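Take a look at my tokenised protein here and describe the backbone shape.
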Amino acid sequence: MQQPQSETINQGSVFIQKENPTNPMHDHQQSRTQIEELKGPRREISRTGCVVAEEVGCTLHCGPLHSSLQVSGETVRHRCNFDAGSNGFSVGGLRLQQPKSQNADVPQVGAPLHRSSTHSDSGGAQRRDVLCAGLIVADHVCKPIPLMPPPGGITMTECLTLTLGGSASNVAVDMAKLGLSVGIAGRIGNDPFGLFVRQEMEQMGIDCQTIQVSETADTSATLVVNVVGEDRRFIHAVGANAEFTADEVDRDLLKQYRVLYVGGFGLNPALSGDSVSALFRDAKELGLVTVLDVVVGDPGRMPEMLAPVLPFTDYFFPNEDEARMITGLGDPVAQAEQFRTAGARTVVITSGGRGMVAMDDAGLLRRSAYHVQELDATGGGDAFVAGYVYAMLQDQDRVHRLAYGAAMGASCVRSMGATTGVFNRQELETYVNTQPAPTAPAG
């Protein structure tokens, strides 16, 4: 058998062997390997194939596209580049074990390693950062085509990509990439798409224990059609999302988090205004920050759905088109004023490449967008929310929160898929600090 190509790196004390580089669908059980702890600061990483290793009593198993390693309570994850998550999780159907030694340091490989954060409340209990609740979707995204085909015709695209989608799952993944400690509540089907979206999130270190599996509905899915020079087109099957209500999130779960995000509100009638209002009321009583994002299904129902929710909403993030459908107003400032009057504490209206406005008790801010080459706008708004909330949790001021949100949104639209190209923490910090965009109070 030909040995895989590898390289030795003089950093840290982890030995990683990648096996079977020519067959990405090889049998994980047959290829499992245990490797002795190395003496001395070196690490070997082959250039292709899957990874299976054991280091300082810590087990690493692999999937055909991903692998993960947990050492000293940290997780290093590999999918083209290494990155960081929080807790042990399943890869390729195998469960990573907690490390036996607490003396090993995790070396930096590729993207920087960040410790997922937990914080103590006034009673001393540990709280994770964000609980995301709402839409979980599998997206099929086509690379931009020159034009829509006529009836009976065909148009070629370079690729069709299966990616994670849905407001709650997009925001959860983006926040996990920023090193935040994240859980998700939602509903999927008992089908391959459900398995795919759950594994994608677990591999990011997202706590998926609150995801429920429907035995009657398929996982929600969206076909995203990108046409050069035009806005995206969506063909959506609501699937198991139609069965998700806020009742799945109880007070005991809320007590574990600092922020509650509800995404995709308005598309699923079961996630009603009264149920989300009660959920947000509980969250506020328990000291959580509440964050709301919408997907407008029936514009005529939205004012009635929002009326009981906005008085308990700390941050509301519609885009300009959504706000226009809800309010009937074309001016983002007027839109923000109406939502503030309805009870929302802070309103941020995003307008894509035209920038954004934010309104809170301190007044109005306008900000221009970062200009990047847009390939696929799917998930840009979700990435904005993730960056904004990340900055809020870092105690950044209102000006910098917009900057972080805008930078995350810009990073998203450069790649195919809603979460594929979003920044990790170091990339985000570097971008914000080196690519300033003007922000000033509105006159």
User: Anything to note?
Assistant: Residues 183 and 207 are 4 Å apart (CA to CA). The longest helix spans residues 398-412. DSSP finds eleven helices and 26 strands in the chain. The longest strand covers residues 126-134.
